[in-house]
TrEMBL record:
<feature type="binding site">
    <location>
        <position position="159"/>
    </location>
    <ligand>
        <name>(S)-2,3,4,5-tetrahydrodipicolinate</name>
    </ligand>
</feature>
<feature type="domain" description="Dihydrodipicolinate reductase C-terminal">
    <location>
        <begin position="131"/>
        <end position="267"/>
    </location>
</feature>
<dbReference type="InterPro" id="IPR000846">
    <property type="entry name" value="DapB_N"/>
</dbReference>
<dbReference type="Pfam" id="PF01113">
    <property type="entry name" value="DapB_N"/>
</dbReference>
<keyword id="KW-0220">Diaminopimelate biosynthesis</keyword>
<feature type="binding site">
    <location>
        <begin position="168"/>
        <end position="169"/>
    </location>
    <ligand>
        <name>(S)-2,3,4,5-tetrahydrodipicolinate</name>
    </ligand>
</feature>
<comment type="function">
    <text>Catalyzes the conversion of 4-hydroxy-tetrahydrodipicolinate (HTPA) to tetrahydrodipicolinate.</text>
</comment>
<comment type="similarity">
    <text>Belongs to the DapB family.</text>
</comment>
<dbReference type="InterPro" id="IPR022663">
    <property type="entry name" value="DapB_C"/>
</dbReference>
<keyword id="KW-0560">Oxidoreductase</keyword>
<dbReference type="InterPro" id="IPR022664">
    <property type="entry name" value="DapB_N_CS"/>
</dbReference>
<feature type="binding site">
    <location>
        <position position="37"/>
    </location>
    <ligand>
        <name>NAD(+)</name>
    </ligand>
</feature>
<feature type="active site" description="Proton donor">
    <location>
        <position position="162"/>
    </location>
</feature>
<dbReference type="Pfam" id="PF05173">
    <property type="entry name" value="DapB_C"/>
</dbReference>
<keyword id="KW-0521">NADP</keyword>
<comment type="subunit">
    <text>Homotetramer.</text>
</comment>
<dbReference type="InterPro" id="IPR023940">
    <property type="entry name" value="DHDPR_bac"/>
</dbReference>
């Protein structure tokens, strides 16, 4: 027996899933309590260490998420929106902390997480890194200090496998800029330009998405006015920073009351 929190990783075979598994296994503050994959996946029934091409770890990959969650204190989930919603219901039933790094969720899908947040600790963020969450705070402050003479553009770059755009982090930054200006992002977002679009509308917050190669994640927030530009930038070179942040959130949530939290809460920012 151990007093270390047991962590379950969903989407075990994915790049983030495997990084999360390695991070938990290497931690002296938590233990890997389970790994979950979708029904019919080749990894089901295998020891996760062997499935990942290494030594056995004594943890068998399962498609029974509720059983895995019931024996754990937290689940870390970087999967897909509908899967995350289903996992949130099971995590609430098992009363384990649910850390969500899934991106590409619509407002309607995010709203469907609220019932789970009334029963357990739910930590959701578009990005789990300390640097990005500091960038979010800086973006809010700079946007509040500058008027609409400064156009705001969020420019993000990711690897060519990423399926959603703009990235969850880009949307976090857009929300921060909108909050700083006292507006609603949905009212001012400019998320697509092609052809004869006309001049940029004053006050809009624009988004540019770049996809290519193996870029882990790069985000710039550009404030551009006549004669000057301010650029806030974060560059990630190793996705381990996201895994470490997610584990920090899972440990942080152990003694918290049920509710919806984000990484600003976890980091005390």
């Amino acid at each position: 027996m151990t007093d270390k929190p047991g962590i379950v990783i969903t989407g075990a075979s994915g790049r983030m899933g495997q990084m999360l598994i390695k991070t938990v296994l290497e931690s002296d503050k938590a233990e890997l309590a389970g790994v979950v994959e979708r029904e019919g996946h080749d990894w089901i029934g295998q020891d996760v260490g062997i499935a990942m091409g290494g030594a056995a770890r004594g943890v068998i990959v399962t498609d029974d998420a509720l059983e895995a969650f019931s024996g754990a204190q937290a689940v870390i989930d970087f999967t897909a929106p509908e899967a995350t919603i289903a996992f949130s219901q099971l995590a609430a039933q098992a009363r384990c902390v649910h850390v969500i790094g899934t991106t590409g969720m619509t407002e309607e899908q995010i709203a469907r997480l609220q019932p789970a947040g009334r029963q357990t600790v739910l930590v959701r963020a578009g990005n789990m890194s300390l640097g990005v969450n500091l960038l979010v705070q800086l973006t809010k402050k700079v946007a509040a200090a500058l008027d609409e003479d400064f156009d705001i553009e969020v420019i993000e770059a990711h690897h060519h496998h990423k399926v959603d755009a703009p990235s969850g982090t880009a949307l976090m930054l857009g929300e921060a800029a909108a909050e700083g200006r006292g507006v609603t992002l949905a009212d001012v977002a400019d998320r697509g330009r092609d052809g004869m679009t006309g001049a940029r509308k004053s006050g809009d917050i624009g988004f540019t998405a770049i996809r290519g190669g193996d870029i882990v994640g790069e985000h710039d927030v550009l404030f551009a006015a006549a004669g000057e530009r301010i650029v806030l930038r974060h560059m990630a070179t190793d996705r381990a920073i996201f895994a470490r942040g997610a584990l920090k959130a899972a440990l942080w949530g152990q003694d918290k009351a049920p509710g919806e939290y984000d990484m600003i809460d976890v980091l005390g920012l």
